[in-house]
Amino acid sequence: MDTVGTTNRLSETKSPYLQQHADNPVNWQPWDEETLQFAQENDKPIFLSVGYAACHWCHVMAEESFEDEEVAAVLNESFVPIKVDREERPDINKLYQTICQLVTGGGGWPLSAWLTPTGEPFYIGTYFPKNERSDRGNVPGFLNVCQSLATGWQEDREEILNRAEQWAEALDNEMSPASGRSRQSNSRAEDDSSLHEDVAQTALRAVDEEYGGFGSGEPKFPQPRRIEMLLESSHTLSNEDYERAATTTLDEMAAGGIYDHVGGGFHRYSTDRRWAIPHFEKMLYDNAELARIYTLGFQITGRTAYARIAKETTEFAIREFKDSSGGFYSTLDAQTEGVEGKYYVWTPTQIRDAVENERLAELALSRYGITSTGNFEGSNVLSIESSIPELAQEFDVRESQVVDQLETIRGRLFDLRDSRVRPHRDEKILASWNGLMISALAHSGFVLNESAYLDEAQSTLQFLQRTLWDDSENRLSRRVKDGAVGGPGFLDDYAFLSRGAFDLYQFTGNIAPLEFSLRLARELVDSFYDRDEETLYLTPRSAPDLVSRPQELTDQSTPSSVGVACSVLADLDPLTPTDDFAEIASDVLDTHQNQIRGRPLEHITMAREATRHQTTESQLIVATQDTLPSSIQTALQESYLPDTTISRRPATESALEQWCDRLDLDTVPSLWKNRVQRHDKATLYACTGGQCSRPTSDMSEAIASLTQSRSQPHPDELSE
Question: What is the pLDDT of residue 584?
């Protein structure tokens, strides 16, 4: 292409983030074979900028530098400038974020990296102001950095290439599976005996006792998988400290400004320790994970406030992110009309205009701590500052009246805010993030008895299978935008979507989600599992080579794709033992056990999966030809059953044979064999380690069997 390297090519792309920069004077290129070839043929270093559409500091750097003619002249003359949407290319983001963290001790977006023409990094950072500024920290000016590196490439290239070689070697060492493998091949079973409590204690020590969350610094991120570990540990290890730490975090986040008290849903993170002032972007993955975690919090603690937050968050996601075709969009921007947070903040006058009732306005001002001076640039981010009992006393009304009046206030604030200019929405639909949302909808739909959520999950899964899955090739694409499908699926796409489909199967008993989950898992193993290294890579085998092949072991913005893959492989294994899914998951965890034990909070999803492997997994088999009886469904909704999968099957053996044909199983899984419906009633079998209790239609009896079998498994008894 004649335009490669010489003009801005981002208008050719579908990414909303890249299109935001299509009019920059910088000659931005997409990361593709033509661009990389141009860099090598012209012996020009690469400037790589990685970001995403809702990123506040990405917008700031764009306004200061990438829209500036002086900066553009230097970039265009001395570098090949490449823009990457981190949501479309998690492999590139992971690779260069890793070296950024190794070299600088931190990372984030925008990520700014200077590379050799063959992709080896030699200088790296995140946000740079155009010129050095005291109010932006100890960060050099972007223009000076570019000029200095351009001169260095011409006059001191040997030093730059030596540094690039050293950094590439560091990347290889960091990405090497051998770095986490124990020298004692059989040590994992011995080491894991105390892993659960070790991980829970590590999480507990990191909790901010006053305001919840992890660490007492800023910014503060929700970290849903760490909260999940504490909630689960409070139940399985019977430790009130774990529950207190988890509920403090859930309570403080739900009361703070990180939660949208008008429209529901969570912002990406808080800029302060108290969760009061967020960065205002909203991400699908955060809201999916937090809706699921608040559902879990309700199920374990019985606190109805958590059910309310889970519902409001789920309904926000459906309202703001769901496309009419079935998929969920990705993000909402932090800015409106170039101003951060403008859509979300309030003044006392705006509250009075919205509520149109002075007494209700005073109640709103007191509830949310709204003042004339404000807490954010002269306006107010809403936080709960007065409890319902305090408001009842202050306004001399019953608590039930306060609740009703607050609901009226919320509705009127919502209506007024809905008339404002809305934040930009990134409308690409990603397989991985939609997989997380399907899991959230399945869990919250079942536990909260909201069948509409299960319907939403089903429609989303059907859309993704119809749009992103190539049935003839058994291949998953990563994204669709305006009908255009693009990008190969990465490990997180296969793992998160397989997990979501399996969760939907558990809570509905439909075979279609199970069938798709199994197909995704088989392809996941074929494309991403390295049998020699016994690890899972982020990129498929067929992907073009990068400087190093990345793995996603740690939890970052989203859960570790390796950890989620191990989870779904382990859950699917009893239904398809010939695929060796459990052995693969076990080998992967064994490969990385040193990292898991050495830094459990960073590897929380993998650590949680490793703790599951130290206990014998359980299954609750449900054989029925109809929907679940209300007594069983209610008991399941109210019962937290850790490390137990719900394994639904048809009522009869003949119907089961048809299932096996659809699932491409040569034989009936031993877990399901002969475990049929009895006496025309839904029949339960509580199984641990392949040994199952006698059949029963009494949920309390099945739960008692599961609890007992952990210490003394029942014999496999099928007689009545």
Answer: 97
508 vs 624: CA distance, rounded Å: 12
What values do phi and psi take at 139, rounded to 5? -120, 130
Mean of per-residue pLDDT scores for the chain:
94
* pLDDT attached to residue 719: 31
Residue 617 pLDDT: 84
Contact 67, 25 (CB under 8 A): yes
All residues at 6 or more sequence positions from 717 whose CB lies less than 8 Å from its CB, including other chains = 692, 693, 694
- Cα(259)–Cα(381) distance, integer angstroms: 10
Structural contact between residues 22 and 62, judged by C-beta atoms closer than 8 angstroms? no
669 cis-preceded (ω within 30 degrees of 0):
no
Adjacent-strand bridge partners of 646? 620
Spans of the chain, pLDDT less than 50: 183-190, 712-720
Residue 441 · residue 314 · CB < 8 Å: yes
Q: 264, 313 in Cβ contact below 8 A?
A: yes
3 state SS for 441-457: HHHHHHHCCCHHHHHHH
Give me the residue label for tokens 């509920």: 247
Tokens 């010489």 correspond to 6
Cα separation, 599 vs 408, in Å, equals 47
State the span(s) of the chain assigned CATH 3.40.30.10. Answer: 10-175
- One of 1.25.40.20, 1.50.10.10, 3.30.565.10, 3.40.1050.10 is the CATH number of 187-336+426-613, namely 1.50.10.10
pTM of the model: 0.94
All residues at 6 or more sequence positions from 658 whose CB lies less than 8 Å from its CB, including other chains: 650
Other Cβ atoms less than 10 A from the Cβ of 157: the count is: 15
For the segment 606-645, what is each residue's pLDDT rounded down to a tens digit?
Answer: 999 999 887 778 999 999 988 899 999 999 999 999 889 9
Assigned fold of 618-709: Glutaredoxin (3.40.30)
Return the number of other C-beta atoms located less than 10 Å from residue 661's C-beta. 9
What's the chain's Rg over C-alpha atoms?
Answer: 26
Q: How far apart are CA 637 and CA 67, in angstroms?
A: 54
- On whether the CB atoms of residues 421 and 336 are closer than 8 A, the answer is yes
- Of 714, 667, 711, the residue nearest 687 (C-alpha): 714
Q: Please report the pLDDT score of residue 2 as a whole number.
A: 72
CA distance 397 to 399: 7
